[in-house]
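Narrative of activities, Objective 1.

The group set out to show that a structural description can be obtained from nothing but a protein's sequence at a throughput compatible with the screening campaign. Below is one input-output pair from the validation batch, recorded exactly as produced.
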Amino acid sequence: MRLFSSISTFFLFITTISLSQLSLAAPVGFNVSGLYKLNSSLPFSDLFKLSQGWYTSCEYDWRNKRAIDPGCTAGNSFNTKEQGWLDKDANGWVRSLPLREERPIFTSVVSSINLPQHFPLGRYVLLYEGEGNIQVEGGVSIRSNQYGRIEFDLTELRRGLKVHVKTTNPRNYIKNIHLVSAQNERTFKQNPINPAYLSKVRSFSAIRFMPWQNSKNTTLVNWSDRPTVNASHYNTAKGVPIEIMVDLVNQTNAAPWFSMPYKANSDFVHNFARLVKQRLRGGKKVYVEYSNEVWNSLYPVHHMAARLAMSRWSGQYQNKGGLRKQYLIANWYGEKSAETCNIWKQEFGAQSGRVVCVISSFARTPDIGREALACPLSRYAPCASGMGAYAVAPYFGDNVAQIKNRAQVKQWAHSGTAGLNKLFNELDHGGELNGGPTGGSIRLAYDNGMKGSIAVAREFGLEAVAYEAGQHLKRDDPPHTIHDPAIKQMFLQANLDPRMGKLYTKYLNTWRQAGGGLLLHFYGIAESEPNTAFGMLESVNSNSSPKYNALINYLH
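Output recorded for this entry:
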């Protein structure tokens, strides 16, 4: 009776909020999938931009098992790991290659595209400028090979796809390589976004580009080092060019969300904001945050923030005990957010109202978020004064894989359909896990993440935003890291199950009815695998999935 009463009270609360507290629209967006998922999500018309490279390669006689190039072995023939020797121009094109008798082992370079399950077979064209010997290798059938253009059929995925530059003329080196489907050959320069990708994302309210910006690990400082449109590859530590990200939102209804590199100087931030203002069309809003999850000890920015904050305010908060470092980091982060916000609003000038500055925090520690917004130690106090949104990541399901539940969840994973049923019952209603949360994982997400975070946002007069959201069955954080393949497979199966769509609808409505605003799913289009089952859609050629359907329906 007590369990029934508590659950009833919860749902009575979320269903009796007055309509005046709810947005008539249901703003929902998504985070793009990571750089390592570009081959799976296929967002660009020019597939060469997705490729990994350059690998330094050497010639090896596989039949007779002997080196052709001195020092070449079966183990290093594809990648001698001598990228430091490469002679590249400012855009990353290889200007010259070593001769066989010279010191490096490599004599050629390869750019490789790994082909996931849903990568489309069919007719492709490789275009290039310059002189040399360039070949397309892998599961291909060459149809024609003319100077500057190689036409081929991709016939199978297992052997991958490689662009191999075997020789190049230093006076007219091979450059401006493009790999496009035959149907996009005439239009890819004018339309850099893959039309199939665009068709799947154009309905969303916002797109968060943190994964494409590599915000967790980027070391960009100076504007001159930023990724540019003419770069040979976009799948690098620098991330995707700003222009391409803005091109994507210009062709959709979405507002962009950018995360400033944590080491970037003020000149970088000024120029970033200026470029976005120049290119962003339609009077769209732009969401801006400093870095990503500064509170998270898994990321370098956290440790930099801790070092600087504890040095600057060495005598403060001695009474905070084990939380002292987090409180000091929150003040430092609030100040950096305010500085970033001021720069963006200065650049947008009379249109500064379009800039929505964001401070974010861990959903389950509202007091730390409140500290970042108030930032009493900072000269900008309160740092919330220039902000437009307070953001958290109110995931659901992350409690299931806690180490304390591991033995029970492992048993589910080895129980087939019965175990999967128990997982869904736990997520939806609870009662399956020994000592699990009353009401299930979505109720837990409301109690421990949504409710307190939305209250903090209201306290400072800000919109409550979910910068990441959705299921989070997978755990990579010690000691909860999942290693058992059976558990990973069960979680993957759950993500593709129709019942996940029903859970998403319940979860999304819970967020909205509790007073939440814009919600950004983590993440967008990418083939699921046991280690990364976050995608909302398996490929650009898929028309539906349980999660994608729920998100689209929520929009309408």
